[in-house]
Automatic annotation (TrEMBL):
Pfam families: MerR_1. SUPFAM superfamilies: Putative DNA-binding domain. One of its GO terms (molecular function) is DNA binding. Residues 73-108 are annotated as: Disordered. Residues 8-78 form the HTH merR-type domain. It comes from Flavisphingopyxis soli. This is MerR family transcriptional regulator. The lineage of its organism: Bacteria, Pseudomonadati, Pseudomonadota, Alphaproteobacteria, Sphingomonadales.
Length: 123
């Protein structure tokens, strides 16, 4: 059964939508103070649309863009975390400032990830 766009989601529904286990969402609640779903009896979590959007943004920062938890926290606090990914892609192409999360610094990690994926595929 599909819900309306403005409906609250349970932790199970949100985890299925993001493709993550529920314990990851509960962990994020401890690390990102902005992520505060409603908790009802029995500690059942209900994510409002704003919470869902924030969880999707956190997921993008951590799992797509390769940020660390601290890096994602800084990105969200700085307000840069509010930009839509499409808006970032349309910005004038410039070299990113040298930081720990710059794409050039991620190349060795991506190479390791690729080799691991190849090894798992061969197994």
């Amino acid at each position: 059964m599909d819900k309306d766009d403005g409906a609250m989601l349970t932790i199970g529904e949100l985890s299925a939508e993001l493709g993550l286990p529920t314990h990851i969402l509960r962990y994020w609640e401890t690390k990102f103070t902005e992520l505060r779903p409603l908790q009802r009896s029995g500690n059942r979590r209900y994510y409002r649309p704003a919470d869902v959007a924030l969880a999707k943004r956190i997921n993008e920062l951590l799992n797509t863009r390769g940020f660390t938890i601290k890096g994602a926290q800084k990105e969200l606090r700085s307000g840069a975390g509010q930009k839509a990914p499409v808006a970032e892609a349309k910005a004038a192409p410039q070299a990113p400032p040298p930081t720990a999360s710059a794409p050039g610094n991620m190349a060795p990690l991506r190479a390791i990830r690729r080799r691991l994926a190849e090894a798992l595929a061969a197994a």
